[in-house]
Amino acid sequence: MVIDGFSGRLPSIVDLAAAMAPFPRIAGNHYPGVRRLILERDEAAFAYVTETLRSAAPFIGGAFDMTAFDLLEASFSMVTVPPAALSHAQRAPHFDSVDPDHIAVLHYLSDTPGTGTAFYRQRATGIELVDAANVAAFVATARHAATARPAAYIGATDAHYEQIAVVEGVADRLVIYRGSLLHSGIIPAGMSMNDDPRAGRLTANLFVTGSPDSPG
Known about the structure:
This protein has 216 residues and is α+β, with helices and mostly antiparallel strands. It contains three helices and nine strands, in the order βαβαβββαββββ.
């Protein structure tokens, strides 16, 4: 699900992120950069999260057959790790959860040409959506291939993964997708790894899941 011109107030949202900078690097997280979790005590930023999900609710409900959902996590995020410093896991597509009701809501907040989000199929297994039944096969195959991957962000189709869809990272575009889909950020060669929210690749990353009241 792709919605353009979602907020209509991009400068004020970027101001919120800039006021929370510098963002930390979160230990144990494979995100290739820095992230600032948005908590309830961050009143203005949390109000942005709440309003975003309220506005996105009809789209989430319609696309994923949910009547209700709960917020799992929200953050402002920036890609800052240069290709040469990527871990093996950061060089390949990933999934967020095997739960089919785990939904990612991604808001592009910067005008960063050539970036976006791509979706993939693991060529050896045919897996493009990871679930409880196939996760072991996916992980085993991914680990076997990991050491052969170059120190670079994944781009188009290669020997291990087939790129099956691309969403361009247009400023103020909202993208909603299942977290169980194999995906990766599109990070072009030469992109600035600036950690300033007013200058680098800034996104808001929101994760929700169907609530007990939802049949989805």
